[in-house]
């Protein structure tokens, strides 16, 4: 089964089988049964969205789908297939489930300051509950670098460790894009390792691909949000570098893991 292909959701019956307790919104694990077989997925009904002060109510499901379309059309291929559905609890987003490898080493971590292993970036320093200095770190990995670029494009306000999944093939997946594509710059991520780095040719092509995917957002976000997305694409092409955090400290989500 190709979890990148939205055709896996065709003509199925959706049955809720569990609720994801670590989720901040009403987020359900479910199974979709069709002639093609059974597909595990995540259903997020609009009705279960927790209101946020900075995002318009009832729009997170559309942002989930918009992020998937950009990922697919530009060739990032980081977000599992995501579509809008009218499910058992009304309209919402439906996303293919990724079987994570529970034994995989983390790609985002917290270590005692000064103990960053080789091949990792420091993100931000802090103090733990015992007032000991700790540092949030992430791996120097090409898949994460692609995700950092994707987040800059979609203006992701919540790229924490829990939204980065590793499957059994060592492939890295991006989930939870409900708070993306705002008109104001809100990039909050743990993946700051490449801030200011020049874009490679391949990365420039991905950004150009994203620019051409803007039409696919028209039924999902406002005209102003689409325009802001296009401006971000153009700015990345003009700058030719990964964005820098706006202040002296990186903007990181809370909690970061
Ligand atoms: N498509 C998916 N495949 C596998 N696990 C997922 C998927 N989507 C979410 N999860 C898991 O469920 C958790 C909660 O989902 P998330 O999308 O973050 O919900 P919320 O929007 O409520 O925060 C994630 O941190 C992740 O561990
Ligand atoms: Mg989440």
What level of helicity do the residues show? 10-25%
Q: State which percent range the strand residues make up.
A: 15-25%
Gross morphology: globular
Number of helices: 4
CATH-derived topology: Transferase(Phosphotransferase), domain 1
Instruction: Report the mean per-residue pLDDT as an integer.
Output: 94
Please tell me the CATH architecture by its name: Orthogonal Bundle
What secondary-structure arrangement, pairings included, does this model have?
Elements: E1 13-19, E2 28-34, E3 37-45, H1 60-74, E4 82-87, E5 90-96, E6 108-112, E7 120-127, E8 133-139, H2 142-154, E9 164-166, E10 172-174, H3 201-212, H4 223-239
Antiparallel strand pairs: 1-2, 2-3, 3-5, 4-5, 6-8, 7-8, 9-10
The chain binds adenosine-5'-diphosphate (ADP) and magnesium ion.
Structure description:
The chain has one domain (6-102, 139-239): Transferase(Phosphotransferase), domain 1 (Orthogonal Bundle). The protein is 22% helix and 24% strand. The protein has four helices and ten strands; from the N terminus they run βββαβββββαββαα. It has helices spanning 60-74, 142-154, 201-212, 223-239, and strands at 13-19, 28-34, 37-45, 82-87, 90-96, 108-112, 120-127, 133-139, 164-166, 172-174. The chain starts with 12 loop residues before the first strand and ends in an 18-residue tail after the last helix. Adenosine-5'-diphosphate is lined by residues 20, 22-25, 27, 42, 80, 95, 97-98, 162-163, 165, 175-176, 178.
């Amino acid at each position: 089964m190709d979890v990148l292909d939205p055709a896996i959701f065709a003509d199925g019956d959706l049955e809720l089988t569990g609720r994801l307790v670590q989720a901040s919104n009403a987020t359900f694990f479910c199974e979709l049964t069709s002639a093609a077989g059974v597909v595990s997925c995540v259903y997020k009904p609009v009705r279960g969205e927790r209101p946020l002060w900075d995002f318009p109510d009832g729009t997170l499901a559309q942002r989930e789908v918009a992020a998937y379309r950009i990922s697919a059309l530009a060739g990032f291929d980081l977000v599992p297939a995501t579509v809008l559905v009218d499910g058992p609890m009304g309209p919402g987003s439906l996303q293919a489930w990724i079987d994570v490898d529970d034994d995989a080493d983390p790609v985002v971590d917290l270590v005692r300051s000064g103990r960053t292993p080789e091949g990792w970036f420091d993100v931000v320093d802090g103090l733990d509950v015992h007032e000991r200095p700790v540092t949030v770190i992430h791996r120097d990995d090409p898949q994460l670098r692609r995700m950092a670029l994707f987040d800059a494009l979609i203006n992701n306000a919540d790229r924490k460790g829990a939204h980065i999944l590793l499957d059994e093939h060592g492939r890295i997946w991006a989930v939870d894009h409900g708070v993306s594509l705002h008109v104001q710059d809100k990039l909050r991520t743990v993946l700051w390792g490449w801030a200011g780095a020049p874009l490679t040719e391949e990365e420039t092509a991905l950004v150009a691909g994203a620019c051409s995917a803007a039409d696919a957002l028209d039924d999902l976000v406002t005209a102003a949000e689409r325009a802001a997305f296009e401006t971000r694409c153009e700015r990345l092409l003009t700058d030719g570098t990964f964005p820098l955090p706006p202040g002296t400290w990186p903007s990181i989500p809370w909690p970061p893991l």
